[in-house]
C-alpha cells in the first residue's frame, strides 16, 4: 500500500481527487487531513469507491504536532497538498487567514515531510511532496499577450494569489536547498461536481435553478481558462507519478471564454435541460460592482505537461458544462445542505452588501 497524505480533501478539488485516486489506484490508501472550514463539505466524501482505504482526520495543517504524528503513524510516502483558503473575494475582505493557511500551512507540511523523510530516505521512489497551485501567481494578461508558461515571471495581484505565490516559492526552496522531491502544478479555473457555490460556475448554476440574480462583476469581459475538475485530478496524479522532482507544470483547459459568455452558455443549457418558469434564464443576468483589482485575462500554455508527460484535458468546455449541470441536478440534496448552512448565507450577504456600498 502507498500511504498518501491528502490535505484539503473535503473541499472541491481535494474531494474529487480522493474519489479519482481510490477509483484509479487499488494499492493506495488516503489519509485525508482537512480542517472542515466553511468551504468543506463532509457530503463530498460520501459514496467513495472502496472507503476502507480512506481515513479522514479533522485537523489543521498548521498544527505541527498533528502533522508530524500523521506522517509517522501512517508512514506517509507521498503528500498531495490542496488545503488552502481559495476564494479571491474573501482574500480581499480578509487577507490574514490566507497568509496563515496558504503560506504558514504549506511551511508546516514541508517541515514535517522533511523531518520524516530524512529518516526514511529522500530517494525512496514513493517520496514526493506535491503542491497544488494556481495560474493566478502569474498575474493578468493583456488581450494579445501569449499564454502563461512555466517561465512567466510571478506577478500576483490579489492577496490570495500572493499567498499562493509565497507558498510556491517556499516549496521550490525546499527542493533546491534540502533536496526534498517536490513538484508543483499551477492550474487554471476548475469547475465540476462538489464546488462550493461561491465560485462563478457553481453559483450561477444554483442561482439560475432557483430563479435568482446571476451576478456578473464589471463588464463581464474578463477571460478565464476553464478546466473540468476530473481532468485536473488526472493531471496532478500524472505529475505525482511521473513528474520530475523540482519541476513545475502548468495545467489548463485550452479554452478562454469571457465570463459573460460562459454564464450565457449555462443559461442556455439549463433552459434546454430544465425548461420552467425561469426560462429564458439569460434574463436573470445582473451586472454588479466589479471586484477590486480584478485580473482581466488568464490563459495557460500546457505544452510542457502535454509534451513530457502526455497529459491533455479530456473534456471540452461544452461537454464538461453539461456533465457538471447534470451532476448538480442529480445532487440537489448536496446543494441544499450547503445553502442551509449559516456560514454560506452570512458570506453571500456580506459580499453583496459590500458591493452595494461600493456602487
Ligand atoms: P476549497 O476552498 O474548495 O477547499 C479547500 C479545502 O481546504 C477545504 O476542504 C478546507 O476545509 C480545507 N482547509 C482550509 N484551511 C485548512 C487548514 N488550515 N487545515 C486543513 N484544511 C484546511 O478549494 P479548492 O477550490 O478545492 O482548491 C484546492 C486547491 O487548489 C487550493 O490550494 C487552490 O489554491 C488550488 N487551486 C484551485 C483552483 C480552482 O479553480 N478552484 C484552481 C487552481 C488551483
Ligand atoms: O485561476 C485559478 C483560480 O480560479 C483559483 O486559484 C481560485 O482558487 C479560484 O477561486 C478561481 O479564482 P477566480 O477568482 O478566477 O474564480 P471565481 O469563480 O471567483 O471567479 C471567476 C470569474 O468570474 C472572475 O473573473 C470573477 C467573476 N465572477 C465571480 C463570481 C463569484 C463574477 O462575475 N460573478 C460572481 O458572482
What does this structure look like?
The protein has 359 residues and is of the alpha/beta class. The chain has two domains: 2-188 and 227-254 and 297-315, Rossmann fold, CATH 3.40.50.720; 193-223 and 257-292 and 316-346, UDP-galactose 4-epimerase, domain 1. The model has no long low-confidence stretch (mean pLDDT 95). The longest helix is centred in the first third of the chain and has 25 residues, at 96-120. It is built from twelve helices and eleven strands. The radius of gyration is 20 Å and the shape is globular. The strands form three sheets. Strands 3-2-1-4-5-6-10 form a seven-stranded parallel beta sheet, sandwiched between helices. 2'deoxy-thymidine-5'-diphospho-alpha-D-glucose (DAU) binds at residues 86-88, 134-136, 188-189, 199-200, 203, 215-217, 222, 224, 259, 291, 298. 2'deoxy-thymidine-5'-diphospho-alpha-D-glucose is lined by residues 86-88, 134-136, 188-189, 199-200, 203, 215-217, 222, 224, 259, 291, 298.
Give me the Rg, rounded: 20 Å
Ligand inventory: nicotinamide-adenine-dinucleotide, 2'deoxy-thymidine-5'-diphospho-alpha-D-glucose
Uncertain parts: none
Name the shape in a single word.
Answer: globular
Question: What is the CATH T-level topology of the largest domain?
Answer: Rossmann fold
Q: For the largest beta sheet, what order do the strands appear in spatially?
A: 3-2-1-4-5-6-10
Which CATH architecture of the largest domain is right? 3-Layer(aba) Sandwich
Q: Work out the helix count.
A: 12
Order of helices and strands: EHEEHEHHEHEEHEEHEHEHHHH
CATH class of the largest domain: Alpha Beta
Question: What's the end-to-end separation, in Å?
Answer: 56 Å
Give helix % range: 40-55%
Total number of domains: 2
Amino acid at each position: 500500500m502507498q500511504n498518501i497524505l491528502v490535505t484539503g480533501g473535503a473541499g472541491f478539488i481535494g474531494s474529487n481527487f480522493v474519489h479519482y485516486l481510490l477509483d484509479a489506484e487499488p494499492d493506495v490508501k488516503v489519509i485525508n487531513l482537512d480542517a472542515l472550514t466553511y468551504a468543506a463539505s463532509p457530503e463530498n466524501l460520501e459514496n467513495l469507491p472502496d472507503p476502507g482505504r480512506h481515513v479522514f482526520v479533522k485537523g489543521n495543517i498548521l498544527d505541527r504536532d498533528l502533522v508530524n504524528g500523521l506522517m509517522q503513524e501512517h508512514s506517509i510516502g507521498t503528500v498531495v497538498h490542496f488545503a488552502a483558503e481559495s476564494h479571491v473575494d474573501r482574500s480581499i475582505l480578509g487577507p490574514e487567514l490566507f497568509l496563515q493557511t496558504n503560506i504558514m500551512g504549506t511551511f508546516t507540511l514541508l517541515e514535517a515531510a522533511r523531518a520524516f523523510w530524512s529518516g526514511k530516505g529522500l530517494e525512496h521512489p514513493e517520496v514526493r511532496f506535491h503542491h497544488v497551485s494556481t495560474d493566478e501567481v502569474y498575474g493578468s494578461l493583456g488581450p494579445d499577450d501569449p499564454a502563461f508558461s512555466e517561465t512567466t515571471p510571478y506577478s500576483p495581484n490579489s492577496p490570495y494569489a500572493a499567498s499562493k505565490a509565497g507558498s510556491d516559492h517556499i516549496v521550490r526552496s525546499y527542493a533546491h536547498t534540502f533536496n526534498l522531491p517536490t513538484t508543483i502544478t499551477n492550474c487554471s479555473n476548475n469547475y465540476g461536481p462538489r464546488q462550493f457555490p461561491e465560485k462563478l460556475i457553481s453559483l450561477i448554476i444554483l442561482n439560475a435553478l432557483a430563479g435568482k440574480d446571476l451576478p456578473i462583476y464589471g463588464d463581464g469581459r474578463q477571460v478565464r481558462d476553464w478546466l473540468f475538475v476530473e481532468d485536473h485530478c488526472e493531471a496532478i496524479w500524472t505529475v505525482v507519478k511521473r513528474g520530475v522532482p523540482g519541476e513545475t507544470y502548468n495545467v489548463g483547459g485550452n479554452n478562454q471564454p469571457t465570463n459573460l459568455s460562459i454564464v450565457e452558455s449555462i443559461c442556455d443549457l439549463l433552459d434546454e435541460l430544465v425548461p420552467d418558469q425561469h426560462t429564458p434564464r439569460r434574463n436573470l443576468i445582473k451586472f454588479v460592482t466589479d471586484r477590486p483589482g480584478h485580473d482581466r485575462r488568464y490563459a495557460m500554455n500546457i505544452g510542457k505537461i502535454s509534451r513530457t508527460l502526455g497529459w491533455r484535458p479530456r473534456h471540452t468546455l461544452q461537454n464538461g458544462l453539461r456533465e457538471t449541470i447534470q451532476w448538480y441536478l442529480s445532487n440537489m440534496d448536496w446543494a441544499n445542505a450547503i445553502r442551509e448552512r449559516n456560514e454560506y448565507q452570512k458570506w453571500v450577504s456580506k459580499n453583496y452588501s459590500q458591493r452595494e456600498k461600493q456602487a
